[in-house]
Amino acid sequence: MFGLHYRLEKHGMALLLGIIFVTSIGGLVDIAPLFTIDETVEDAPDMRLYTPLEVAGRNIYIREGCYACHSQMIRTLRDEVERYGPYSLAVESKYDHPMQWGSKRTGPDLARIGGKYSDEWQVAHLIDPRAVVPQSIMPSYRFLSTTGLRTDDLGLHLKALSRVGVPYTDEMVTNATADAIAQAGADGSDGLTTRYGEATQARLFDGDPGKVTEMDALIAYLQILGRLTNAAHANSPPPGE
Amino acid sequence: MVAKLTRAERQFALILLGLMALCGLVMAAGANDDLFALHGGLILAVAVGLSFLVISGLDAPEPPPERLAEYYDAPSRVAIVLTMGWALFGLAVGDWVAWMLAYPHLTVDAAWASFGRIRPMHTTGVIFGFGGNALIATSFHVVQRTCRTRLAGQFSPWFVLLGYNLFCLLAVSGYPLGITQSKEYAEPEWYVDLWLCVVWVTYLVLYLRTLAQRREPHIYVANWYYLAFIVVVAMLHIVNNIAMPVAWNHSRAYSAFAGVQDAMTQWWYGHNAVAFFLTAGFLGMMYYYLPVRAQRPIFSYRMSIISFWGITFMYMWAGSHHLHYTALPHWVQTLGMTFSLVLLVPSWGSAANALLTLNGAWHRVRDDATLRFMMVAAIFYGLTTFEGSFMAIRAVNSLSHYTDWTIGHVHAGALGWVAFISFGALYSLTPALWGRQRMHSAWAVEAHFWLALAGTLIYVFSMWNSGVIQGLMWRTYDSGGTLAYSFIDTVVAMHPYYIARAVGGALFLAGAGIGAWNVWMTIRSPDTVSQPAGGDRPLTILAGE
Ligand code: HEM
Ligand code: HEM
Q: How is residue B243 annotated by DSSP?
């Protein structure tokens, strides 16, 4: 074996190919089956899509690095299920390009934050976390409620998402901007609910009837977290370990 | 820098810079969103700045042909300066981030300065800025010395070094503006990723061509590691960053992967960025500078072979230990845990090989702080990998995951291993490359060593404490069978440890500051040593070619 290696060391390209070969195996075995084995992601017929406003909110969540402090993955452990709710299923992040599972909980898990607090609480908390929770170390995001939301390119965003596999229809893509404005403008237009379902929440998320702000979008996203499907609540066997 | 290039090479450089300026201009003028335009402007500005540099040297006389019979060290010299610059930046931002977690109002009330945007500036600044430049500087130096040949390119080393730093600049300037795709350690957006691809492939080709023209029959161990670092980082980078841009002129793109598949791809990338960027590359560094400095041959050649292939093979399976108890299928988690445990064998093989090499040179370790940097690095490498394998056990990970324990593990590796081995290598390399007898101040190296060690220990111990406390508090039940602590209770309990960590970080930063001063003074010092004839030169000359 060492004799073989002695010869290998004399050939740069052979060494290179050896490294590529040896390193490819593990990745292929770990990753490739996840795309082919059907049980990897559960079926959830009631799974709905993010609306354009929620997509915009999700992008703000990413931009602000909320994932650096908050996870969106409740593990199959008793204390986590009791603290945060039913453990997360793979299907719940099926449309998350990329996922926001996170790796650090400086703040609590947000996988099921949707509906836990009122919009007013969320606005007050994002503007000044310490006004709501005095010992909090979360940054304040005051500027969100004064920054207007960019909506004119949302069609392009939906289009890109449909290209990577999210089933947005052409109709959704064409109406993306109007749907976003409708959802944040309280007058839940018919189009919005027919396209995205009756359960779509349309209201003045930031409480301000003026312009559509980034605060509207972020809160629309936070309020839908954990509520895209009921699958986790429906079949919630006792956690494994 | 420019004077060492031929006229044709200077003209080629100008053409490339012209293309780059054009690219920046098109990005700035045709952008669909402001952030893309800003980055276009930045690219344009860098291209114009570098063009001035090239133009100012355009008419310099042709460089003498004898230069081709010498090692090509100018790129490494610039890389060393850049390494120290990025170190100061990355560590200072890291300490700022640390203070923010202790006192959240220690920032300015502006969008760009919030924790979530500054934190990736720290991770990118230290890993890619500091670590990456140290790897480029040393890999260029090591490959030439161990192959006894000059780098196989006059212009491409500059392209790799400066192109790479442009990547770092675009990445780090993007986060405060709000450009990120949120994948940890792969935050830059699609166009920045594409640029890195071009740079990295050039790096690979340059490295392979230099190996191909070596004057030694064998490829030395250090080069195996550098080669693995370069080629595997290319594989990881390309796969994990596949994405669909919103438009050609838009800064945002959507990852091709979603949910559980994305999680596995991301942590296959993330864990192996640790393995091949923060481990393999720096092991290459260790396998050259440690034996040279200790003036001892590597303890065991066979052990280095086993460790090398063990590490390259097994790391790739282990990424799923970042996803224990999640929605990832159970079999993948088990696979990741198993391989993480076996991984301890080759990891300790490398650490032991390094420490046993020092056997017989302990008096040097005692007297020479530079060698001591490398020895401590090998110890922390052993410690971090042991801790990593331990944390990869599902039951242990149920406690450690999501807590500061992970942060403690990260920085035991990042400070104790990565930074220590880099500083050790830099202190060996700097005097050699500028033709000095030794570093400007031995006392300053000593001070740096102790500050760094104290800082690392304070950092790691405080995070171990806070991590374990937090993990336990989250799962503590009271006698009534309900959870005993609210989340905010655990945040409050972390406070003293966050202060301690920030103080440790400040010590570490102070050490690096002394180091940067020392490097600078060494560069400026007038005492040059004349090279002995036939000494530090490629073998071509001796062979009479
Ligand atoms: C002055 C020294 C340093 C200080 C004070 C410091 C501080 C920090 C802080 C406060 C965080 C965020 C932790 C959290 O979110 O809870 C962090 C994360 C991180 N730092 Fe450092 N750091 C230092 C040096 C380094 C070095 C030299 C490296 C690498 C070579 C490094 C690599 C990282 C990485 C990879 C993370 C992300 C960890 C994770 O997400 O799990 N740090 N650092
Ligand atoms: C045998 C070797 C190693 C093993 C098995 C290992 C294992 C682990 C495990 C189990 C985690 C925790 C994952 C989680 O719960 O989220 C982790 C995180 C981490 N380790 Fe290691 N580790 C090893 C060596 C190293 C070394 C040498 C470094 C060098 C700096 C390092 C850097 C990191 C980083 C940066 C993270 C944080 C990733 C994140 O969550 O952002 N590891 N490692």
A: E
Task: Closest CB to A83: pick one of B309, B327, B483.
Answer: B483
For residue A197, the tally of other CB atoms under 10 A from its CB is: 12
In which element (H, E) is residue B245 found?
A: strand B243-245
Q: Does residue B440 line the site of ligand 1, with CB under 6 A?
A: no
8 Å CB contact of B483 and A94: no
Q: Is the dihedral of CA B525, B530, B531, B532 positive or negative?
A: negative
Q: Do B487 and A108 touch (CB under 8 A)?
A: yes
User: What integer pLDDT is reported at residue B538 of this predicted model?
Assistant: 79
Q: What is the domain partition of chain B in residue ranges?
A: 1-70, 74-428
In eight-state DSSP terms, residue B254 is: E
Residues B389, B383: Cα–Cα separation, whole Å:
10
Q: Nearest residue of B to residue A102 by CA position?
A: B402
Determine how many CB atoms are found less than 10 A away from the CB of residue B142. 24
Phi/psi at A81 (5° precision): -65, -40
Question: How far is ligand 1, taken at its centre, from the CA of residue B120, in Å?
Answer: 9
Nearest CA in chain A to B204: A16
- CATH 2.30.30.100: does it fit domain A52-235? no
The domain ranges of chain A are 2-40, 52-235
pLDDT in tens, B381-419: 999 999 999 999 999 999 999 999 999 999 999 999 999
Q: How many CB pairs under 8 A join A and B?
A: 264
Q: Is the pLDDT of residue B464 over 80?
A: yes
Q: What is the pLDDT of residues B115-165, one digit of tens each?
A: 999 999 999 999 999 999 999 999 999 999 999 999 999 999 999 999 999
Query: Would you give the end-to-end CA distance of chain A in angstroms?
Result: 44
Cα B278 to middle of ligand 2, angstroms:
10
Are B289 and B138 within 8 A, CB to CB?
yes
Cα distance between residue A38 and residue A36, in whole Å? 6
Burial B68-107 (b: 16+ CB within 10 A, else e): eeebbbbbbbbbbbbbbebbbbbbbbbbbbbbbbbebeeb
Please tell me the distance from the alpha carbon of residue B412 to that of residue A116, in angstroms, as a whole number. 38
Q: How many CB atoms are located within 10 Å of the residue A228 CB?
A: 22
Best to test chain B binding among A4, A36, A75 (most B CBs inside 10 Å): A75
Q: How confident is the model at residue A198 (pLDDT cuts 50, 70, 90)?
A: confident
Say how many Å lie between the first and final Cα of chain B, rounded.
26
Sign, Cα dihedral of B153, B158, B159, B164: positive
Report in angstroms the alpha-carbon separations of B490 from A76, B116, B248, B468, B471.
Answer: 21, 20, 45, 11, 9
Best mutation site among B285, B344, B384 for ligand 2 pocket (most ligand atoms within 8 Å of CB): B384
Strands B243-245 and B253-255: antiparallel
The band of B543, judged by pLDDT with boundaries at 50, 70 and 90, is very low
- Burial per residue of B453-465, b for 16 or more beta-carbon CB atoms within 10 angstroms, e otherwise: bbbbebbbbbbbb
Greater confidence, A1 or A59? A59
* Tally of CA atoms within 13 A in the half-sphere of B359 that contains its CB: 9
CATH class as words, domain B74-428: mainly alpha
Task: Answer yes or no: is pLDDT of B545 > 50.
Answer: no
Report the alpha-carbon distance of residue A76 to residue B398 in Å, rounded: 10
Residue A74, number of CB atoms within 10 A of its CB: 27
Measured in degrees and rounded to the nearest 5, phi and psi for residue B112 equal -65, -20
On the question of pLDDT at A65 being above 70, the answer is yes
Summarised one tens digit per residue, pLDDT across range B33-66 is 999 999 999 999 999 999 999 999 998 899 998 8
